[in-house]
Amino acid sequence: MPTLDLAASSPDITRAICDIPSVSDDETALADAIYEVMLAQPHLQVYRDGDTIVARTELGRAQRVAIAGHIDTVPINDNLPTRDIEIEGEPFIWGRGTVDMKSGLAVQLKLAVELTDPRVDVTWLWYDHEEVDADLNGLTRLARTRPDLFAADFAILGEPSLAGVEGGCNGNLRAIVRTKGVRSHSARSWIGENAIHGASAVLQRLTHYRAAEVNVDGLDYREGLNAVRISGGIAGNVIPDVCEVEVNYRFAPHLNGAEAEAHVRSVFEGFEVEVTDLAEGARPGLDAPLAQDFVAAVGSEPRPKYGWTDVARFSAMGVPAVNYGPGDPHLAHHDEERVSVAQIESVERGLRAWLTQR
Amino acid sequence: MPTLDLAASSPDITRAICDIPSVSDDETALADAIYEVMLAQPHLQVYRDGDTIVARTELGRAQRVAIAGHIDTVPINDNLPTRDIEIEGEPFIWGRGTVDMKSGLAVQLKLAVELTDPRVDVTWLWYDHEEVDADLNGLTRLARTRPDLFAADFAILGEPSLAGVEGGCNGNLRAIVRTKGVRSHSARSWIGENAIHGASAVLQRLTHYRAAEVNVDGLDYREGLNAVRISGGIAGNVIPDVCEVEVNYRFAPHLNGAEAEAHVRSVFEGFEVEVTDLAEGARPGLDAPLAQDFVAAVGSEPRPKYGWTDVARFSAMGVPAVNYGPGDPHLAHHDEERVSVAQIESVERGLRAWLTQR
């Protein structure tokens, strides 16, 4: 089993934990290493469920903050082990997971061990299966088995946010828009009715759709409605009777799930629409006192988060939550994923300062 | 091994050989049974290559006719064993293969055995793998290994033609029309360029396309241009960078392959087009003296054949060829495939009359 040296610098910890591959469903080696270190910390109470590890201080503080990060990554594509590279004179760590989100995780692991006397009680949550179906997400499991562990006055997700504070997140809806026809032999196509041709109108609505930008609690959320998959066809000589377009609607957090679904159904009125996945967004949550205090401490102008993150899960449980982590979210899942060393250090400084100020 | 009783009526032979399943790639049981019977006929010289069987008379006649049929079917879909049904008072045999084309095959097998002294020499060809890729077709193999066996003055394919004569066939072209984009995370779709949305214009051209009807040598061939498959998409959270539309162009036999390809490329001008399969059609071939004689003997007004059949193979080898078989081609590959008993008997009468008249 690999051993973690959390006395190392947070960039060094980033390198070390990226070089322990942990693609979704294969997180156990990394989870074991984290669990071993945390069990050895007298100031932490440690709980493990599968590859999700929760470490809590129990200092009797008036307030509690949840700080969370997922330990899995999307599949490796020839981009491990990590390498040190330089871009315009600045040092970066390159490789799978450096942005999403092992650099943020590295800072959290380091501070969990070092900050034995934080100003608030802290619940550290490190979880598996974030990059796959929400059903598999370690936090989904934990919310079912130990909802008490989510109790907090404020939550910080370590998702990449350019070392700034990104408030809330867009919601995420997936639906199948289905066209139907009548199957026939393609040599006598006039007997049938081509469902793929029928999908032409679906794609036209998508190409003509103009995505909105919506201001929610002072932050501008940019939406998107896109086809992410299309499939149809039985054989090379058959007029197909079904075509499916999977669409993905990323909606600003002014809409709840039902409103988002109604919007998608109205866009595709006249077609069969089956919603297959729906995760509500999260309003920024920046009006909470601890949030304002946090933003002031880290000295960053809050921005909206476009991607769905687990902040929505905390938000839905009544816990205001923000994203705060090193790395450019545009580079998440990218084959050339790389994180600025300066941003890792900045996030470490910001979190440390806020957690230790009196 | 099943044994064939070719003294039975042609409808009974149809029932018997349909009930020996012979889905493409699984024709050996039926081929074995045919081979065994033919080997026992003193008036036939029999050649076998895989599951293709060739049986020839060698009577020294001035002319030779090739009469051919495939022995495979498309997959069974709960439509075997055969059943006798009645439609508007007329008897039909229902089940996979009854139309395409074991009823035509039954007539051929029966006559091959019974007509020991035909007016022309006959080359009977029964072949495998017609319902799958042309590369696998038994006639493709035979044309490579024994092209001499195709030598004939006229050819008749037993493909379903409502017991009438269907001349020539449309050509068949398949191509991939490909759109490209730029991949990105769907939470920030404005960074990418959606290739599925790009395919909207491809589908629009298909929906606006008006297929031609073309008169060739007196017969009207109806064309068709259709999407038969569409695929695109990487994952539910990724803007896809490629979308492929497979199109199928059924073209009248006034065009050769190069002309058909040029037409498809012009329809999809501006898009990447990759031709993946191209089989030229066949002109009706009804001006050949033997063809005129045949049409007169069977007393049927010739019609065009829309579907591609192996008549094109004979046509390309300089042998005029027609389709003549029982069954409604619209029911080929249909789950409710069924053939009129009267049509089986009519084709038997027609072929028998023509082959025995002096």
Could you explain the architecture of this structure?
- Two copies of one chain form a homodimer.
- Chain A is α+β, with helices and mostly antiparallel strands and 358 residues long.
- The first copy, chain A, has two domains: 10-169 and 282-356, 3-Layer(aba) Sandwich (Aminopeptidase), CATH 3.40.630; 171-279, Alpha-Beta Plaits (2-Layer Sandwich).
- In chain A, 28% of the residues lie in helices and 28% in strands.
- The first copy, chain A, has helices at 10-18, 28-39, 98-114, 138-145, 195-198, 200-208, 257-267, 289-298, 311-316, 341-356, and strands at 45-49, 52-56, 64-70, 83-87, 90-94, 121-127, 154-157, 165-167, 171-180, 184-185, 213-216, 219-222, 224-232, 238-239, 242-251, 272-279, 303-304, 321-324, 338-340.
- In chain A, the strands form five sheets. Chain A has an eight-stranded mixed β-sheet, sandwiched between helices. A four-stranded antiparallel β-sheet of chain A has the order 13-15-9-16.
- In chain A, a hairpin with a 2-residue loop joins strand 1 (45-49) and strand 2 (52-56).
- In chain A, helix 3 (98-114) packs parallel to helix 10 (341-356).
- Chain A is elongated and about 75 Å long.
- Strand 13 (224-232) of chain A pairs antiparallel with strand 13 of chain B, so a sheet runs across the interface.
